[in-house]
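Please go through this chain and its backbone structure tokens and walk me through the local backbone shapes. Keep your notes short.
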Amino acid sequence: MKRVFYFAAIIAAVGALEANPARAQMIDSTKPAADSSKRPLDSTKADSAAAKPKKADLWSVGKVDGRVSLRADLSARTLTVMGNDGAIRTFNVAIGSPNYPTPTGTYSIRKIVWNPSWIPPDSKWAKKETAKGPGEKGNPMKVAKIFFKEPDYYIHGTGQVNSLGDAASHGCLRMHPDEVAELAQFLMNNGGQPREEGWFSRVIHMRWRTHTVYLSQPITLVVSR
């Protein structure tokens, strides 16, 4: 669990640098960040929540036996990591809005981009937007992009964490920045591209440098309503 807090602290500190880059040498990553992924449980959903598996820590789960897959439930607005024995971890996500729905289907995740840049798509909503480099202020792509239907659809970290659980995106699946880092690391470990712990801390610290990883063992994602 210490590793979770360590990486959460790194990501939180890195996010703060976007507002004040001059503080880069003053980061104290030993202080654990608050776990903002914990949300109040709606008492009307207590029965269904009781049936859900205990929340796992993907940083410590590491490599699992058998195949790993992902399931996105657009109705529930969740993304679940699946193993041979069932659900391992479930995340709250934001899905596409009614005007820009997230596409349903079965996809293969082959590419993960850490510290991604952002190029506005050729779409009406993005006409006035400008390209942003990795880690640049105003870049809506936080920490990692996990592609499932290139080039336009991916799972990515967002600064708009209040949108999680809503139909608010332009088609992608948004995640909390801490959680997309957790998921990307887990997919690398189980997709044939494991890295040692220090690699991830360096990548997250050096937010201005993009790293692209191609999985040698693609991960299946099923998106359904």
Confidence is low (pLDDT under 50) at residues 19-54.
